[in-house]
Design brief:
Largest sheet: 6 strands, antiparallel
Distance between the termini: 88 Å
CATH superfamily of one domain: Alpha-D-phosphohexomutase, C-terminal domain
Helix content: 10-25%
CATH topology of one domain: TATA-Binding Protein
Structural class: alpha+beta
Radius of gyration: 24 Å
Strand order of the largest sheet: 2-3-4-5-1-6
CATH class of one domain: Alpha Beta
Number of strands: 6
Length: 137
């Protein structure tokens, strides 16, 4: 007895779903993310300059022009903007992914806490948009 299916190739599978280049389970949010910190200190310019100088050897770009600075991390990982005010140091980090943001917060925050150990500086990050570090202060 002849079975028609035996001579017919299996049908091609339906078009598979396109591969998701950034699976949702890699992080809560995909795309650019940001955080900022306000560190009370009267030595904001000193720490801003020191942070930019320290980053210059590894960053794609690091520039300090008082009272503002910028550090561009390699590979489009992210950017840190720095503003020294008379009573505080403002930091704003924008990163490509949540994982990059955490890493940059650790790098930048750890350096500031180390530089300001005598003042017992602590960097507390707040997630969200820029706090005004680029508003021409």
């Amino acid at each position: 007895m002849h079975h028609p299916r035996s001579h017919t190739p299996d049908p091609a599978p339906a078009d598979p779903a396109p591969a998701d280049p950034a699976p949702a389970d890699n992080g809560r949010q995909q795309g650019p993310v940001s955080a900022h910190a306000r560190i009370p200190t009267e030595r904001g310019e000193r720490y801003g300059k020191q942070l930019c100088g320290h980053a210059a050897w590894k960053a794609s770009r690091a520039r300090w022009t008082p009272p503002d600075g910028v550090i561009e991390f390699p590979g489009s990982t992210g950017v840190c903007r720095i503003t020294a005010e008379p009573d505080c140091l403002l930091l704003a980090v924008d990163a490509a992914t949540p994982a990059d943001l955490v890493r940059l917060q650790q790098i930048v925050g750890g350096n500031i806490e180390r530089f300001g150990a005598r003042e017992d500086l602590t960097v507390t990050w707040t997630d969200g948009p820029d706090h005004g570090a680029t508003n021409g202060g």
